[in-house]
User: Fold these one by one.
Assistant:
Number 1:
Amino acid sequence: MKAMILETLQELTPDSEPLKYVDWTDPEPQSDEVVIRVAACGVCHTELDEIEGRLIPPSLPIILGHEVIGYVESVGHDVTQHRIGDRVGVGWIYSSTGDSDENLDPTFQGTGCDHHGGYAEKMSVPARYAYPIPELFKDAEAAPLMCAGSIGYRALKLTQCYDGDPIGLTGFGGSAHLVLSLIHHLYPRSPVSVFARDAESRQFALNLGASWAGPIEATAPVPLKAIIDTTPAWKPVVNALRNLQPGGRLVINAIRKEARDQEELLLLNYHEHLWMERQIQSVANITHYDISEFLKIASEIPIRPTIKTFPLQEANQALRDLKFKPTRGANVLVMS
Ligand SMILES: [Zn+2]
């Protein structure tokens, strides 16, 4: 099969080519696994963390990618839940305990990090971590649901908001634009304020129904009950805390924060940013419950992710665009 592999960690520049297009051995299913013929794989910010070494894969080379949509090609002896030809998706959770807190367990394994992922024509995965994909989604548009959407759903649950609570989103890329649709569906009376660096993303948010959009350092029209931060930076954290109501909660949905602007944290003022029971909560990984629940809700809405597709061989371009260009939605690799 063909695959894009990561052999060495590096800082991604506007013309670097971190992944190599190669011939790779086809995967064979273990007794509890399925092998999937990949149709599409979304490009997630976590891949930048892996390439640039903030989240180091245990062994190299590795095939990245954890927003996978494909068709079951073969199944292990013990697999009962999927048949050959079924369409399934795979997210960031490759395997864990199956318990409700499996995202936090030390045995948690990540797709495209601890095991080869979906930047390839085929991949294998334990059958319980492959999910049926609702029919109404096309392959490529379903891909961002597997991480950006599912983990956005987990982040929204962790805000502990109720319908009517004003909610903020900091950063407006692959995950946040799906969370906005989720909020409209689950909390229809909640106004949504969006903080984004560039004017294009702010306009995109307003087009999708945000009630207000402003730059990262702006003050929202009303104090917010919760804010979900999906940026890789620190400045938005300090600003978000300033925009919270007393008792409000900042949910940081990012596996790693970049060190570049860490000195912004020195601006943290206890009275202004934390006093009055303001809280900070991180989001770690994902459970199979989150993904299954989210796919059901996504098909009820139905969520329609905004995507831009690239052939597998152009994964490097898709990654550079993610880092250097303001994105409108999600970049997705499609296999020929
Ligand atoms: Zn992801």
Number 2:
Amino acid sequence: MALEASIDRRNHAQSATTNGAVVLPPASYRLRLNPSSEHKPDSYDDLHQLEFTPLLFSSLERYLPPTMLSMSRDVKFQYMRDILMKYSRDGERTREKDVLLWQVICATIQSAVSVQRHKEYRQRIISNYQPLHRELFTMHAPSVLVPAFVKAVRDNTEASFRSIMAEPIPGIYTFEMLQPRFCEMLLSEVENFERWVHDTRFRIMRPNTMNKFGAVLDDFGLETMLDKLMNDFIRPISKVFFPEVGGSTLDSHHGFVVEYGMDRDVELGFHVDDSEVTLNVCLGREFSGGELFFRGVRCDKHVNTETQSEEILDYSHVPGYAVLHRGRHRHGARATTSGSRVNLLVWCRSSVFRELKKYQKECSSWCAECQREKKERQCISIAATKQELLKRIGNTSS
Ligand SMILES: [Zn+2]
């Protein structure tokens, strides 16, 4: 079969074909180790008789040599299939380049498989779960948000944001955001979902490793609505207040609710979020305790360093009110001592910020400890310069 051609035999391939067989590019083409982030891969979903999942081809396409990206889908498909066949056949891969390439392929396969599995998981929920309030699933701003918040974001200036917000310590913004009726509907929708999970014994994934209770809203149909909330309302604010952590390029989110109370999660340890910007809104209902405590923004390297006194903030939740902060702002939640408390969390992420961070060697402008170290280095260097200057003046005048 023509497709069985090994990579090495590609040297002899021509760049055109007369018999309908696809011609493969020369062997000098190599997969790249870093995927192209701008390239929009073709879809391979219609190719049914694949040994590999169609999604794998779309993912692997980003690793193709740049010159190949504009080639026809058939050429790219056969080239990739060829590589995959070769690597799934070969037992021994001793050459270093091959090992690296194999790692790239494995990682790509794993991520494609997990994306595919999650897609199927969501599909299973959405096709079986009957929502209680259909209107929750579209983002109708006046029903979701309080008028002052909508106006401030529409005006879209730092002054308009500040007019409705408090900033109790730098980088923490609190404001009234959600309509009471919306909070109530979302609470009952979550209850309805939990009931369905219980009755059908459907095994759901919890929002994160720290919360045993709560639900991922994106998994039962609210993804589009929350995406709109992020794009139209959270990003404009983040662009102004958190530009250095990708606030203006937020492009994906993880949306969920967490439930606290005596028969739920009680408290939440000290941590940072897997987000660039976090929106945390209290939905209700009756509770005492459960304060959020904040302890300064830190990068990965400095996440366990000491807190300065000016970084300490304790915040008490008010239903309908939001807290907006950087994901790297260290925080935790104290015990909810009575009643029950449900909060909506939207972890907003920026793929651009995450990509750039990989190449960043210097310290972070947004980490308080990095800044303190930088200042210390500057002080030492100024002191040294001063010393040197004094010595020179001393020498010339003697
Ligand atoms: Zn740092």
